[in-house]
Amino acid sequence: VYTQYNGEVLQSSEELLKRLSEAKPGQEIKLGSAEGDVVVKLAASPSDPQKAYLGVTGVKTNYVTKEDGWF
After folding, report:
1. Whole-structure pTM value
2. pLDDT tens-digit readout, 18-64
3. Are 26 and 41 in contact (CB under 8 A)?
4. Backbone phi, then psi, for 16, in 5-degree steps?
C-alpha cells in the first residue's frame, strides 16, 4: 500500500488518484510504502496520450494449488 507521493503523506487512495490525474506523461514520481520507496516514470495513457498512466504490463501470473491447510 502506497502511503506517500513524492515524500508527502497520502490521506486516502482518492488523494493518490487525484495526484496521479494531475501528473504528466514522462514525469517521474516517488511512491512510498512501509517496505520502502520506488521511483517510477509515468507513461502516456493508451486511451489519451495527454494523460499520465501508471500500470503494470507483461506480468505473467502463475497459480499453484496448495495442499489442505495452506492459505
Report:
1. 0.72
2. 999 999 999 999 999 999 999 999 999 988 999 999 986 666 666 66
3. yes
4. -60, -45
The amino acid sitting at 32 is G
Measured in degrees and rounded to the nearest 5, phi and psi for residue 36 equal 130, -175
Q: How is residue 3 written as a grid cell? A: 502511503
DSSP alpha helix (H) spans, the chain: 13-22
Q: Sorting pLDDT into bands at 50, 70 and 90, what band is 1? A: confident
Question: How far is residue 63's CA from residue 67's CA, in Å, rounded to a whole number?
Answer: 13
The contacts of residue 3 (CB under 8 Å, 6+ apart) are 9, 10, 32, 33, 34
CB 32 within 8 A of CB 57: no
Backbone angles phi, psi at 43, to 5 degrees: -95, 175
